[in-house]
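User: Hey, my collaborator sent me this sequence without any context and asked if I could get a structure. I don't really work with proteins. Can you help?
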Amino acid sequence: MATAGMGTSRPLTLLLLVIFNLLSNTITGGGGVSAESGVFSVKYKYAGRERSLSTLKAHDISRQLRFLAGVDIPLGGSGRPDAVGLYYAKIGIGTPPKDYYVQVDTGSDIVWVNCIQCMECPRKSTLGMELTPYNIEESTTGKLVSCDEQFCLEVNGGPLSGCTGNMSCPYLQIYGDGSSTAGYFIKDYVQYDRVSGDLETTAANGSIKFGCGARQSGDLGSSGEEALDGILGFGKSNSSIISQLASSRKVKKMFAHCLDGINGGGIFAMGHVVQPKVNMTPLVPNQPHYNVNMTGVQVGRVMLNISADVFEAGDRKGTIIDIGTTLAYLPELIYGPLVTMIISRQPNLEVQTIHGEYKCFQYSESVDDGFPPVIFHFENSLLLKVYPHEYLFQYEGLWCMGWQNSGMQSRDRKNVTLFGDLVLSNKLVLYDLENQTIGWTEYNCSSNIKVQDEQTGTVHLVGSHSISSACRLNSQWAVILLFLILLMHWSAHFRCFS
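Assistant: No problem. I've predicted the 3D structure and written it out in structure-token form, which is a compact way to encode the shape of the chain:
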């Protein structure tokens, strides 16, 4: 009996240790935001999934139409162009807080989540998490935003006809792809993690105003791959989450992201990043998004001969920085000579066009040895270097270019210069809204950055994260179940010999 007892106690101890470790990783898998600096856990939406070029392009078209109309954001992901980039974060809203999975977007402002009254809103997602509609009656701190509040007047550009006194402030956002969200504004607490030490956080919260989506249409109302609880907007206006938290002195009006295009996940932090040091360039004034002035394009060691007015074509001045888009879109007068010069490095290439827009070819050698890097020049000598393995991606045995010709797009996006994850992954990007500057540097996004606590002056490490979704939880419980089966087998085995 003693031998049998020892035989069952050892696997039981091992099992308990495995379960404890698995559940510990599950519970502590998130990151957060700080009271003076903060972080959001990030996850890449399509990790481990097959992608298609049509899906990739459809996502970018939909995303840009939304982006140019305005709405969205915090993060999650991998920036490979063959991975259809979409980043999302898990945040808590209400008292007691409930978890919501929201798309992270630096290109829009309003924060919104699906509301309990919404009949068309998705209730499940193929991403592997349960979706949770917000119910104001389940939060002790939730309050309606009235039509006469300043926030309502600012968001809607003045008084709304028929919306007076204590009536709930409505919102309606119609996107260029035909999808829309409509509802009313709520004031409640958003829960986040305040940076309190090196790779340590403590729970904190701040009051924000956000949309409670009572009606969604188009892609926003479907329970498909892109189904999420809502959008977290980190745009420039006063309605964005960074502006709202900064106005209540919860954070400085600064944030940073580092999208890990190699391992997935990454870093998203609010606050004053002090390391690594980053060279900054001014934001273009009077633009609704994060636009910067490009001054030149270099392919290898050769500067392209491009007229200065090409960089200022159209109503949208400068280059748009948008982590919600996967590829990089260039005006036709830049795209043409850029692609021509890249291809000229291998004169024997047989280039073919896939899906009418992707330049693809066969190449068996190292692309970094066979093709030149592309370097974009910006004001204040800020450079953005994109290596061949970043702007080329494999598809069905071919190498395809991630550069896209925006001159071939619809009228609303014609000749827009827009940089998405193709060029922003594996770089730490800093947004300093207090000084109206933005900057970036090449960086290992699975490592750490240093953020300063403005109250104490101390500097703390902030690391990368990857959100544990229900898919991961299910796989962990599958492992636990396997160990339980093995334990039963071991127990039966030892009883036979006792």
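In plain terms: DSSP finds nine helices and 31 strands in the chain. You can pass these tokens on to your collaborator as they are.
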